[in-house]
Design a protein that fits this description.
mainly alpha, 2 strands, 5 helices, two-stranded antiparallel sheet, single chain, globular
Length: about 100
């Protein structure tokens, strides 16, 4: 298990790791769009989901986009995206309420 932020999504606790360098290289467009996005733009939401999915598949290879869409909602979306971005060193952040720091 790769270290990361522990978060409860749905009814299960997950450890959300940083993106690997390979993932950062291959997802540069999604990451650039995610940084530029504001609000609930569907394209920005999809970019965020793809970035989170890539990070989570490092610890949970069976994680699918369908499952991720079931456990992430508009209430926890921002915290999950920030966890990945923070773990990956792309932003400086403090854990949100309910998160357990790595």
């Amino acid at each position: 298990m790769i270290e990361g932020y522990k978060m409860v999504l749905g009814d299960k606790e997950y450890t959300i790791p940083a993106l690997s360098l390979k993932q950062v290289r291959t997802m540069k467009d999604e990451l650039a769009n995610l940084r530029a996005a504001h609000g609930g733009d569907p394209d920005a939401l999809n970019n965020g989901l793809m970035v989170v999915l890539a990070a989570m598949q490092r610890n949970y290879p069976d994680m699918t986009l369908d499952l991720l869409e079931d456990v992430i909602d508009l209430d926890n979306y921002k915290s999950v995206v920030l966890a990945v971005m923070g773990q990956s060193g792309m932003i400086e952040r403090k854990p949100a309420q309910g998160e357990i720091p790595a």
